[in-house]
Amino acid sequence: MKNGTPILEVRNLSKEYSDFTAIDNVGFEVYRHEFVSIIGPSGCGKSTLLELIAGLVPRSSGEVFIQGVAVNNGHSSIGIIFQQESIFPWRTALENMEFGLQMQGVPQDERRRKALEMVELMGLGGFENRYPDQLSGGMKQRVAIARALVMEPEILLMDEPFGALDEQTRIILGEELLRIRQEIGQTILFVTHNINEAVQLSDRVVIMTARPGKVKTVIDIDLERPRTSAVIPTEKFGRLVGEVWMQLREEALKSFKQAAR
Amino acid sequence: MAIRRGREAAARWIFIAALLAALEGVVRLDWVNRIFVTAPSLIAATAWEKILSGELPALFATTLFSVGAAFLLATTVGLPVGYALWRFPLFGRAYDELLSALFASPWILLYPIFLVVFGRGLGAIIAMGFLSGMIPIALNTHHGLRDVNPIYLKVGTGMRLKERQIIRHILFPAAAPMILSGLKLGVTYILISVIAVEFLVEIGGIGRLASKGYFWFNTEELYLGVAGAIVLSMIFIHLLGRAESRLFTS
Amino acid sequence: MKPLLIQTVTVLVFAAVWEAVAESGLLFAGILPGIGEILRAAWVLASSGVIFPHLLVTVHEASVGFVFAALFGIALGLLLGTQPFLRRVFEPPLLYFAATPKIILYPIFLMLLGAKLESKMAMAAVSGFFPLVVNTTIAAAGVNRVFLKVARSVGASRLQTFAQIYLPSMLLPVAGGARLGIGVSLVAAILGELKVSNAGLGFVIMESFNHFRIPEMYAGILLTFLFAAAVNVAMTLLLMRCRGFAHESAR
To answer: What is the DSSP letter of B30?
Structure first.
C-alpha cells in the first residue's frame, strides 16, 4: 500500500499554547486508500492534531503536505468530521449534505444529484428529507459523514466520530464505514481513544504519548481486507488489541496522573 | 487571566470616564441647554450638599426600608408558599401556572389599585414590592424542591433516613442554590418596583427625588435622583451577585 | 384536566370574595367596585369607542420605540456576541443596567422630548432595547463552534458563514428577545403615560384615578391587561411560526 507520494504528510508539526505544549514535533504519512488511526490517552492532543491538519487551528511550527504540496490554512481536499453533533438543525439531511457544495457555488441541480448519490451510498434512503431532530444519533453521524464525502475529499479526517454513540451502534457504523471505504477507496485518518475501534478499522495505528503529544510508535494491523466486525472474536484481533494496549498503558497512566494534578 | 481581566476592567472604566467627561465638556461649552442637561460635576456638588444636609441619606434609608420590609414579607410568605406548592403537587401545578402567568403580566401597571387600596404612602409601595418579590421567591422555591435529582433522595431512602432527615439534610441543601437565586430575583424585582412606584407617585425615597426635580425644573436634583436610583440598583445587584458566588464557592 | 379545574375554581372564588367584599360595603367602601360595575364600565369604554384613539396612541408609541430598540439592540448584540473582548468589557455593565428600573430615566426624556408621544417612544425604546441586546449577544456568542468549524472546513466566506450559520442559529433566540422586548416596550410606554401624558391607555387609567371614577380606572386597567395579554399571545403564535420557518428557511 505504501507506494508513491503519500496523500497526507505531516512533518515536525507542533502546537504550543502560552502555558503548555499540546503537540510536539509530530510526523507521519498516510498513503492512498489507507485507513490510519491515531490513538492516545485523553488530553494528548489528538483532536488538536486533526484540527491543525485541517487548518482550523493555527500551527506553531511544522508542515502539512497534501499529495506533496504544502498547505497552510486547510485545503478543499481535506474533509473533516467531528465528534460533536455537527449537522445543522435548520437543514434537512439532504440539504446538510449539499452544504459544502453550495458554499463552493455548485449549481443547485448538480449538488442535489451528488447528494442523492451519497444518500444511496450511505443507506440513508427514506431519511433524506428529514430534519436532524427526527433522526437518531447514528443517523445524524451518517449524514455528517455524507456531508464530508460529497466533497470528494482526498483524505477524510475523523475526530472520534462515533464517540458519542453506544458501543453497538459504534461497531455497526464502523463496519459501514469500512464498506463505504471499500466502495469508493476513501483515504481516512481517524482519531479515537477506543482500542477495539482502532484495531477493527485500521491498516495502521499511530500511538501517541501523554501530553505533550508525540508519536510513540506505529503498529501495523495486518487483519484481512475486506473486513467486517466478524474479526472481533478472532485470536489475531485480541492479540493486536493487547499489543496496542501495552504500548498505551504507560502513557495512559501518565495522563491519568497529569489530570489528577 | 488576571491580567486580561484587569485590562477589560480598565477599558470599561476608561469608557465610563470618557462618557462623563464628554457630558461635562458638552455642558461646560454650552452646547446644550443647561435646563435639560447638566454636568456630572454639578450633580456631584448637589449630591455632596444633600449628603451634608442629611436629605440624601434619608432618601436612601427610606428606599432601603421599603425594600427591606417588602423583602421580609415576600420571604415570609414566598418560602412557605413554595414549599406548599411542592408538598401538594396537584395544587403545585395549578398554582405554579397561575403565578407564572401573573408574574409574566405587566403587574407594575396595577399600582393605581394599590394606591387606592393602601393610600398614597409607604404602605402602597411596600405592598407593590411584596407582590413583585413574593412570586419569584415562591416559584423558585417550588422549582428548586421539585427538580432535586431523585437519585439524591434515593440515597437517603436507601440509608433508611426518616422523611424529616431527608428534607433537612438532602432536599433543602440540594434545592438551596435555586431557592437562593429566587431570593436574589425577588430582591431585584422589589427594588425595581419600589423605585418605580416612588418615582411614579412621588412618595418615599430616591425615586421621588427624580420626580420632584422634574416638576420643579431643578435639573441637578432630577439627574441626581436618576443617577442615585441607577447606582443604588447596580450596587444592590453587584452585592447580591457577590453574595451568591461567595455562598457557592466556599 | 385537574389543574385546570383548580385554576378555574380559584379564579371563581377570588371573584366571589371580591364581589362579596364590594357588595357588603364593609371594607374598602367606594374603592372596590363590584365586578359587574367594572365590566359595565369596560363595556362603555370599549363600545362607545372612547378607548380606541388612546389604544392607537399607545400602540404608536410602543411600536416606534420598539423599532429603535430592535435596530440598536440587534446591532450591538451582534457586535458584542462576535467580539469577545468587547463582550467582556461591556456585558457586565449592560446586565447591571438591564436590571435597573428604566422608568427612572423618564424625567430626562420628558425634559428633552416633551410630554407628548416622543418621551414615551424613548421609554419604549430604552426598555425594549435590553432584552434584545442581551438575547442577541448570547445568541451570536452561542453559535455552535462546531458549525463554524464545518463552515470553515468547506471554505465558506464570511458572508456565507453569516447567512448560512449565524442567521439560522440566531433566528429563534433573537425572535424570543423580540417577543420579550415588545411586551416591555408596551409596558414602558403605558408607564410613561401613567406619569405624564394627555393620551394613551395609561392616560385613561390616570384620568379616572384623578377624577375618582374608580370603576372606570379598574376597567381601564382590565382592558390594558387584556390588550397586553393579546399582544403576548399573538407574539407567541408568531414565534411558533418562526420555529417552523427556522426549519424551512434553507430551502
So the answer is: T
Q: Is the ipTM of this complex over 0.90?
A: no
Q: Which residues of C touch A100 (CB under 8 A)?
A: 154
Q: How confident is the model at residue C49 (pLDDT cuts 50, 70, 90)?
A: confident
Q: C183 near C231, Cβ under 8 Å?
A: yes
From chain A, pick out residues whose CB is under 8 angstroms from the CB of C251.
95
How far apart are alpha carbons C183 and C160 in whole angstroms?
A: 33
Partners of residue C249 in chain A, C-beta under 8 Å: 90
Q: What integer best gives the mean pLDDT of chain A?
A: 89
Return the residue of C nearest to A150 by Cα: C154
* Cβ-based contacts of C165 with chain A (< 8 Å): 88
Residues 57-96 of A with CB under 8 A from C: 74, 76, 78-80, 82, 84-86, 88-92, 95
Lowest mean pLDDT among A135-139, C28-32, C224-228: C28-32
Q: B234 and C100 in contact by Cβ < 8 A? A: yes
Determine the Cα–Cα distance for residues C226 and C190; give it in Å rounded to an integer: 14
pLDDT at residue A211 is higher than 90: no
Question: Measured between CB atoms, which of A54, A79, A131 is closest to C247?
Answer: A131
Q: Which chain A residue's Cα is nearest to C157?
A: A103
- Residue with grid cell 448560512, as numbered in its chain: C164
Edge-first strand order for the sheet with A215-220 is A78-81, A155-159, A187-192, A35-39, A204-208, A215-220
Closest chain C residue to B6, measured at CA? C89
* pLDDT for the residue numbered C249: 45
**A102 closest CA partner among C170, C82, C165:** C165
Check if the beta carbon of residue A173 is closer than 8 Å to that of residue A138: yes
* Whether pLDDT at C250 is above 50: no
A180 touches chain C (CB under 8 A): no
Residue B215's pLDDT is 84
Q: Do the Cβ atoms of C73 and C177 come closer than 8 Å?
A: yes
A100 touches chain C (CB under 8 A): yes
Report, in angstroms and rounded to the nearest whole number, the Rg of chain C calculated over CA atoms: 23
Give the residue carrying C-alpha cell 399573538: C234
| pLDDT recorded at residue A203 | 93
Task: Give residue C251's pLDDT.
Answer: 37
Question: With touching defined as 3+ CB pairs under 8 A, do chains C and A touch?
Answer: yes
Look up residue A5 and give its DSSP letter. S
pTM value? Answer: 0.83
Query: Any bridge partners for residue C124, and if so which?
Result: none
In this complex, do B237 and C186 lie within 8 Å of one another by their Cβ atoms? no
Mean pLDDT (whole number) for A82-99: 90
Using a CB-CB cut-off of 8 Å, the residues of chain C touching A82 are 146, 149-150
Q: What is the pLDDT of residues B28-82, one digit of tens each?
A: 888 887 778 888 888 888 889 888 998 889 999 999 999 999 999 999 999 999 9
d(CA A155, CA A83): 17
Question: pLDDT tens for residues C125-178?
Answer: 999 999 999 999 999 999 999 999 999 888 888 999 999 999 999 988 899 899
Task: Check C104 against B98: CB less than 8 A apart.
Answer: no
> Which are the contacts of B124, defined by CB distance < 8 A and separation ≥ 6?
B111, B114, B115, B117, B118, B197, B201, B203
pLDDT in tens, B107-134: 888 888 888 888 888 999 999 999 999 9
**Nearest neighbour of C88 by CB, restricted to B8, B16, B188:** B8
- A219 within 8 A of A204, measured Cβ to Cβ: yes
DSSP B83-138: HHHHHSHHHHHHHHHHHHHHHHS-GGGGHHHHHHHH-SSHHHHHHHHHHHHHHHHH
pLDDT digits (tens, 9 = 90+) for A103-130: 888 999 999 999 999 998 888 889 989 9
